[in-house]
Write a structure and sequence with these properties.
Blueprint: H1 3-15, H2 20-30, H3 35-48, H4 54-66, H5 69-85, H6 89-105
Length: about 110
């Protein structure tokens, strides 16, 4: 976690609260040391910017590691459907692989 980067991203968030990339960048900064804060940001992304496809992979992994596995499963499945709808082939492949690995972990 880089405090200077977080401060800059928080400033950008105030200036552009509807930019999903800024929320995503903040969430990924927080995910290792402050998973609860990252969870809130990923949840906001999933609710407000469901087409921001990069969210699904990281949000599902965070839920699987720190929170609810059932919610992680739900996020993976929704991300796979969204990637199919958006014809995001690379994201689809990554999500399917991550979801398969997630299923084997149980």
């Amino acid at each position: 976690m880089n405090p200077e980067r977080i401060a800059q991203l928080e400033k950008f968030k105030k200036e552009s609260p509807d930019d999903p990339f800024i929320l995503y960048a903040l969430a990924t900064e927080y995910k290792e040391e402050q998973p609860e804060k990252a969870k809130l940001l990923f949840d906001e992304l999933l609710n407000r910017f469901e087409k921001y496809i990069g969210t699904y992979y990281h949000a599902a992994a965070l839920y699987a590691e720190h929170f609810e596995r059932d919610k992680a499963d739900e996020i993976y499945q929704k991300g796979i459907k969204m990637a199919q709808q958006l014809n995001e082939h690379h994201a689809l492949k990554e999500l399917k692989n991550a979801y398969t690995n997630f299923q084997f972990e149980e």
